[in-house]
Design goal:
It contains 7 helices and 5 strands. The protein is of the alpha/beta class. A 5-stranded parallel beta sheet has the order 2-1-3-4-5, sandwiched between helices.
């Protein structure tokens, strides 16, 4: 059997944004995607598809923020990296921004309709298979940190992101997908981006799930 191909589709927390920095990125030995690749070894290929400010379906109207709508790029991304065995999705934080005016239930409905259903039903062009899905609940936003309080950017997002954990878990159960909660995933000084320690913790938790899944097949 060839390498098991895993696509990691997410936002700045998949890209590796350093909390509180000016668009600095964690290195190859620090961000969770690269750590996961090292932990899993050569039998797995980790494909990084993290994008800063990526939403679910909302368009970021700020200058220079074109192309942040996560759904618009999802199918081209799946087809670009086809065949894919597993997709890890950690998305939803940016959709909680006050400017998009969505509650947690609405975000969950969008995630299910546009991401879960699309990924699970996107048949490979090259073999008779469909991707499996591992849903990761985004970390809880700390809207009270100074960076979040600017212009009330994430007003109400703390409670909403807590609710997403249960909502995403229910969706995962409904579609028989793997799920990882945001428990223990801490954000740094900006209240949004994972700490270096949490990148490591996330990779280790994902390794356990993935190894368990593929040793049982």
């Amino acid at each position: 059997m060839g390498q098991i191909r895993i696509l990691c589709y997410g936002d700045s927390n998949t890209w590796g944004y350093i909390s509180g920095s000016n668009h600095q990125r964690y290195g190859n030995d620090e961000r969770w995607t690269k750590i996961l690749s090292k932990l899993l070894g050569s039998s797995f290929e980790i494909i990084e598809e993290g994008l800063n400010s990526r939403t679910l379906i909302s368009d970021d109207t700020r200058p220079g923020k074109e192309g942040k709508n996560g759904y618009e790029y999802l199918i081209p991304c799946l087809d670009t990296h086809d065949p894919i065995d597993l997709v890890i999705v950690m998305l939803g934080t940016n959709e909680l921004k006050a400017v998009y005016n969505k509650n947690a239930k609405e975000v969950g409905e969008i995630f299910e309709k546009y991401f879960v259903k699309t990924i699970l039903n996107r048949k490979s062009q090259f073999k008779d298979s469909y991707p499996s899905l591992l849903i990761v609940a985004p970390p809880v936003v700390n809207e009270y940190q100074d960076a979040c309080k600017v212009n009330d950017k994430y007003l109400g997002a703390t409670q909403k992101s807590k609710q997403l954990n249960d909502i995403y878990k229910e969706i995962a159960q409904k579609y028989n997908c793997e799920f990882l909660s945001n428990q223990g995933l801490e954000t740094g000084m900006d209240g949004v981006h994972l700490t270096k320690e949490s990148h490591k913790k996330l990779a280790e938790k994902l390794e356990d799930i993935i190894n368990n899944r593929y040793t049982m097949i």
